[in-house]
Amino acid sequence: MTQNPVTVTQLRSQHPAALIGLPGDAPLMRWSIESKTTGLSQLGYEIEASATQSFESTIEVAVGSGPEQFGIEAPGGSLASREQRFYRVRVETEAGWSDWSESFCFEAGLLSAQDFIAQAITDGSKHSEPAALLRREFVTSAKPVSARLYVSAHGVYDVMINGLAVADEFLNPGWTAYQDRLNVATFDVTKHVRSGANAIGVELADGWFRGKLGFMNKYDNYGSQTAVLAQLEMTFEDGSVQTLCTDESFKCSTGETRFASIYDGTTTDYNFEQCGWAAPGFDDSSWKAAQLAEIDKASLHPRIADPIQEIERFPMRLEQHADRVQLDAGQNVAGWVELIVEGKKGQQVTVRHAEVLNPDGTLHTQALRSAKATDVYTLGRDGRQTLVPKFTFHGFQHADVVTDAEVVSGVAIAISSNTAKRSHFASSDIRLNRLHENVVWSQRDNFVGLPTDCPQRDERLGWTGDAQAFAYAANTLVDAEAFWRSWLIDLELDQDEAGNVAAVVPDLISLQPMPSNEWEVMGRAGWADAATIVPVATYETYGSVDILKQQLGSMRRWTDALHNRRKGEKFLPTEFQFGDWCDPDAPSDRPWEAKVSADYVANSFFAHTAVLTARAERLVGSDEGASKYQAMADELKQNIWAEFGEHARSTTAGCSIALEFEICPESERESVAKILAGMVRKDDGMITTGFLGTPLILHALSKAGYFEEAYLMLMRREVRSWLYQVERGATTIWERWDAIKEDGSIHAGEMDTANEHQEDESMISFNHYAYGAVVDWVYRNVAGLAPTAANPGYRTTIVAPRPASGFSSAEACIRTSYGNVSIEWEVVSCGDLSAVLRVPFGVTAELDLPVSADSQLFVNGESMNNGSSLGYGEYVISVSKPSIVRFK
Ligand code: BGC
Fold first, then answer.
1. Which atom of ligand 1 is nearest to the CA of 578?
2. Residue 514 class from Cβ within 10 Å (0-12 exposed, 13-18 middle, 19+ buried)?
3. 46 DSSP β-pair partners
């Protein structure tokens, strides 16, 4: 019998593959296919569900026809708490049925409040006091064949069993809309539990729950008591189960972590270390009994997003100064310094952090505002030792160490939500490559549990405007589908009764309102619209219709809230808006006073939101809903253009919004694009847009054919450009274009200087990803790989490189759900364009190559035309006399 050429690989669900303890809904399966021969297609599939990995007995089989490999509901229905189910799939192609794939195991968590018999416990401490240690010993009669630990907390925690950490994860349970939703992590601790004496230990700190949080510097935002709830379930060979729960039998004390704050850093005194406290046999007779605490069990939900983990280490360069040792990681990261020192008991080591240095070589700490970002250690013994802070993180590249001990070495540990890398980009222009890398790092540094504005100052909040601006770029760079799925649940939970979406999610601002009432922050244009833009971006880039199903209610409520705010009038009332925030032509301390009218921007985002909601309705809701929101959008657009059209034409942001959100009528698109291109040329590619206009402008230009102007902006090196930052040594994306000025001085970051309530003036960050949105354009147009709205998730990939003068090559690879789609192109010596394109099974590539009137296009030696579709396989493409964008 000849072997079937088709293999099914990477069978998985919509959740991160490494997670166990997931929600119990039937998983949505997806798989990739590899084939030794070309020309095949998936005709059908069979998915089998079983309780055992050997598939001896079947729970249910699902048979389907057609090419779908993504988002298919698994057979067998929903799972019960703790249930483990195995799935495998085989597919039918023209070559017959493939073998079964390797099996995929899905494990449900504790799904109802009743499943939690553990009680939450606390040490009764107050904020800013030493972190709590909570411990208990227990005995087992044998080594369990399986052990699961379910944990959640008010605060942030680390758990150890028998002295060993249960996972390489940080800052659990992350920051969610705590009032309604607390993540439960499930750890496989089978290897940790022994036969006989065992011990479990939890270290618990303030974290986001009650530590200092927000630019108002408030404590106890969610409550004044930290608490942990843990349930360890051990199954033995004979099928018996032993459960160990947090309760009053736990004892508590404190250890070396004397103070731990997300913003301020950690104070660690190793003289307080209680060696072996999380192992059996430790004498805890002097410890107090833990007290019972309150965690609402209805708020407990299985976590669904990737944990926060170490993602990279950068050895730091050491420079000895008279009064300090200065360390440089060479890369701006979110994380901490792991320091090795040689010292004596009692010596102090202070580590301060900053993203950049002042011109005089000192740390630029003004950007941190009130965040102290300082880790202080007191050594507990003589000799060489490694110092690491806990329950904090800093945004930094540089650190100053002040100590009498000898600093041996330092390593910058970068942490992030461990979303899998999804893409690769490189080109012959090293500055553009560095820009790409800078965006990658701003993404990594700002996805620490939630999408934050920045990782360094007393903010680190889930600003919705920044998230929507960056969503497409983020989705191109990493597999952020689960990350958004989790955060969007919080976004919906934090919508107010009227349906308004918060400016930051989790909505801390409602918990600590601003002193002046001038700033209404719920439901602001371009921020609240994350409710529609992020789900649609996620749908388009990953192909996941379930994200739209999940969010449709939230999208409707936000669109209705906008509609209701009009009270029967044509437009939204004039109110405070962030507007095209940080327009570089706005007064530098009043970033909301952009050139483009905030009313025009607000109504245009409203229209765009209505269009996106109509789209979601069409896909997963009702036709009536679709017609209702589409009609709302159409009428609004007409009115906007009649009222604001003239004004919109006068600014780059105005034109970009008009074109990208299709506010201007079709008949005027050409003239608006021409005006926009003219302005860009006049400004010599200098950036004149803020947070809302910048993500749109290059798309607005290039879709109208103005590639020269788009490249002029992208490749500009003088101030107010992406590459200016690169040339100034940036390793992440800045909040202000001239954060480091041409003379080397640092922008003062003035903010609302006329406001008596504004105490801390600085708003200057070197790690704000919003402007990094540009890499989405780079993938689509420089390398030339783009997903389509109609056939999302790169199922149809548009191959449209637009080589420009100065570039001899570019390449990109996107790890789609189907497999890797990649392109490598170069302009060869005769001036022709030569490219290698790889298309995975299940994906169709549509050619839109840079042909001129005299070009000939060959694919694997055969003459072809643009518009042709290519199925899976590897293709060598050549375009003679290609059209090259000449931009300067
Ligand atoms: C944040 C921004 C945010 C803005 C809105 C700033 O402080 O850092 O990124 O979107 O406020 O007002």
1. 12
2. middle
3. 63, 90
Q: In a 10 Å sphere around its CB, with 0-12 CB exposed, 13-18 middle and 19+ buried, how is residue 739 labelled?
A: buried
CB 43 within 8 A of CB 94: yes
Query: 293 alpha carbon to ligand 1 midpoint, in Å?
Result: 35
Q: For position 757, what pLDDT does the model report?
A: 58
The burial of 716, by beta-carbon neighbours within 10 Å (0-12 exposed, 13-18 middle, 19 or more buried), is given as buried
Closest residue to atom 8 of ligand 1, CA basis: 453
Nearest-5° Cα angle at 299, 553 to 560? 20
pLDDT of amino acid 750: 82
CA of 323 to the centre of ligand 1 (A): 36
**What is the CB < 6 Å shell around ligand 1?**
453-454, 459, 463, 465-466, 578, 581, 763, 768
Ligand 1 centre distance from Cα of residue 886 (Å): 36
d(Cα 645, Cα 600) in Å, to the nearest integer?
9
Q: Report residue 553 as tokens.
A: 């209610």
Q: How far is the CA of 453 from the centre of ligand 1 (A)?
A: 7
Cβ distance 193 to 245 under 8 Å?
A: no
681-695 per-position pLDDT tens digit: 999 999 999 999 999
Residues 519-555 pLDDT 10s = 778 999 999 999 999 999 999 999 999 999 999 999 9
Amino acid type, 418: N
For the annotated catalytic residues, the residue numbers are 459, 735
CA 87 from centre of chain: 29
Atom of ligand 1 nearest to the CA of 454: 8
Q: Which atom of ligand 1 is nearest to the CA of 527?
A: 10
Give 813's DSSP letter: E
β-bridge partners, 88: 48
Closest C-alpha among 363, 122, 139 to residue 254 = 122
Ligand 1 pocket test target in 453, 527, 577, 732 with most atoms within 8 Å of CB = 453
What is the per-residue pLDDT across 436-475, written as a single tens digit (0 to 9) for each?
Answer: 999 999 999 999 999 999 999 999 999 999 999 999 999 9
Query: How far apart are the CA of 52 and the centre of ligand 1, in A?
Result: 50
* DSSP per position, 3-55: PPSEEEEEEE-SS-TT--SB--SPPEEEEEEEESSSS----EEEEEEESSTT-
Asked if residue 49 has pLDDT above 80, the reply is yes
Query: Rounded to the nearest whole angstrom, what is the distance from the C-alpha of residue 209 to the centroid of ligand 1?
Result: 21
Structure tokens at 796: 């149809």
Reported as a pLDDT band with limits 50, 70 and 90, residue 516 is low
How high is the pLDDT of residue 761? 65
**CA-proximal residue: ligand 1, atom 11 (nearest):** 463
Label residue 829 by pLDDT band (50, 70, 90).
confident
Per-residue confidence (pLDDT) for residue 2, from 0 to 100: 66
For 123-192, the DSSP string reads ----TTSPPEEEEEEEEESS--SEEEEEEEEESEEEEEETTEES-S-BSBT----TTT-EEEEEEE-TTT
Nearest residue CA, atom 2 of ligand 1?
Answer: 453
457 CA: nearest ligand 1 atom: 8
Unique residue bearing structure tokens 């790169």? 794
Q: 455 near 447, Cβ under 8 Å?
A: no
Residue 81 predicted with pLDDT over 90: yes
Q: How confident is the model at residue 514 (pLDDT cuts 50, 70, 90)?
A: confident
Q: Which of 466, 518, 767 to mutate to test the pocket of ligand 1 (most atoms within 8 A of CB)?
A: 466
Average pLDDT taken over every residue of the chain: 96
Give the residue whose CA is nearest to atom 12 of ligand 1: 578
Pocket perturbation via mutation, ligand 1, pick of 463, 524, 691, 692 by most ligand atoms within 8 A of CB: 463
Could you give the angle at the alpha carbon of 401 between the alpha carbons of 400 and 402, nearest 5°? 120
Q: What is the pLDDT of residue 588?
A: 85
At 184, the pLDDT band (50, 70, 90 cuts) reads very high
